[in-house]
Amino acid sequence: MTASQTSPGVSERQAAAAGAAVEVGERARPATPPSLPARRLDVFPNPAAERDYLIEFQVPEFTCNCPLTGQPDFAQFWIDMIPGDTCIELKSLKLYFWSYRNEGAFHEKVTNSIADDIVAAAKPRWLRISAKWNVRGGIYTNVVVEHRGDGWRPAEGWTAPPVR
């Protein structure tokens, strides 16, 4: 009995577990992938705009290309942000980071461009981006960028998280 010939009330999984043959096929590539890289950041209203609170994003798998050699560069990004009136939507952030995959850019340029784009999109009260680039030529590069919104002052006793 094949999976398509199972008895009424018996799922294909149950039939397979009972030793029935499983139908095997190949998944067709979709005409339009479900997600594509995009140089776009979507925002949504901050649900607690009256208060300062910290949002921490980790991007453990960032890739771009060396502008001189074309070889891949890999980095881990940490984004610490005290939002203003809006927050960054996570899927758009993922697709935004993905958009750098085939771009050639120096570490310093990429890190500063990402900070500029997040500031332009979300207008955070405070932002820090820490990028730890994998070794290249025996040298590790860490780039840290900070932004402080006009007139924003941290609450008394507040300390920024340590640079990663």
Structural notes for this entry:
It is an enzyme of class 1 (oxidoreductase). Its EC number is 1.7.1.13. Belongs to the GTP cyclohydrolase I family. QueF type 1 subfamily. Catalyzes the NADPH-dependent reduction of 7-cyano-7-deazaguanine (preQ0) to 7-aminomethyl-7-deazaguanine (preQ1). This protein has 164 residues and is α+β, with helices and mostly antiparallel strands. It has two domains: 1-29, no CATH class; 43-148, 2-Layer Sandwich (GTP Cyclohydrolase I, domain 2). It is built from three helices and six strands, in the order H-E-E-E-E-H-H-E-E. The N and C termini lie far apart (58 Å).
Q: What's the layout of helices and strands?
A:
Blueprint (H helix, E strand, L loop, with lengths): L11 H6 L25 E3 L9 E11 L6 E11 L3 E3 L1 H9 L8 H16 L3 E11 L2 E10 L16
Antiparallel strand pairs: 1-4, 2-3, 3-5, 5-6
